[in-house]
Design a protein that fits this description.
- The complex is a heterodimer.
- By secondary structure, chain A is mainly α.
- Chain A has one domain.
- Helix content of chain A is 75%, strand content 0%.
- The two termini of chain A are 33 Å apart.
- In chain B, helix 1 runs parallel beside helix 3, helix 3 runs antiparallel to helix 4 and helix 10 crosses helix 11.
- The radius of gyration of chain B is 19 Å and the shape is globular.
- The chains are: A mainly alpha, B mainly alpha.
Amino acid sequence: MRNAYIYIAVMAVVSFLIRVLPLTLIRQKIKNRFINSFLYYVPYVTLAVMTFPAILHATGSIWSGAAAMAVGIVVAWFGFDLFKTALSCCAVVFILELFLVR
Amino acid sequence: MAKYSFRFHKQAFLRGLKDGVPISLGYFAVSFSLGILAKKAGLLPFQGFLASLLCNASAGEYAAFTVIAENGTYIAIALATLVANARYFLMSAAFAQRLDPEMPFFHRFLLAFDMTDEIFGVSISKEGLLNPWYTYGAVIAALPGWSVGTMLGIIAGSFLPVRAVSALSVALYGMFFAVIIPPARKSKIIAGIIAVCFALSYVCTLIPWVRDLSEGTRTIILTVVLSSAAAILFPRKEQEETEERA
């Protein structure tokens, strides 16, 4: 591993700049339609891409990962908040792995 | 337009503090699973605490920890953080529209520090010009949940039973679903885009050359390509944005 503190410093500086630049510099609305649309879609795309197929390999078995995904999507679909959605995913993995993983 | 004095506003601060408590609990559970990932990447408990205290970003830290786990370059971690956090650019831009134009710079700096999905959500749902003290209250309640949770995740990752670690590892993905699925229910376009993202992300782990790229690099490329494609195919009308984000 390279220097962990330099990694953290880079993360912190980039995270802060992304947030502070619009707050201090943009006092008017962004007009460009492509940029607006692009920025709008970025969160959905990046979170979706990071979630699948990574979730399949996060747990002790592919099947418990897949089940967590199915349950997470359903629970979020019905509008449960962040905490409950996260907890349901954990619960289903825990219960399934009582049988799947020995 | 109502004028604010930017002095300490106790009532707003206390309201924020109260609204921040449930956020903090949710953060704690999720950042605990982020800590498990940080441990896999080789970070010490204090380093995880520091990263979460300074970055306050689930997806951004997740992406960055993936790069650290792969021993990536400093450029790679900067790019991964940038792409995974790009949505905060939009949130901050939306937030800026609701601030008193005369608000001094140091308030804008402080507000930027913890601009997360949840803090943005509770703050922007208030009427009229935003009172920074409300946001500070929410931040002071929520921030410790995130950073301490990450630290405990790294520590406990080593003595918790394997089963429990396995179960907690998916908390982060649960949080991601909570962010992307409700809008997908309202918009077929977003639902379709998410399905395409899942499919292509999977395909990219199969095709030669692309599958040999690091996970972080694949995420960056897929995000830029797919978001551009979506922006070209389904450009958004002006009014739609602020309404739905709030």
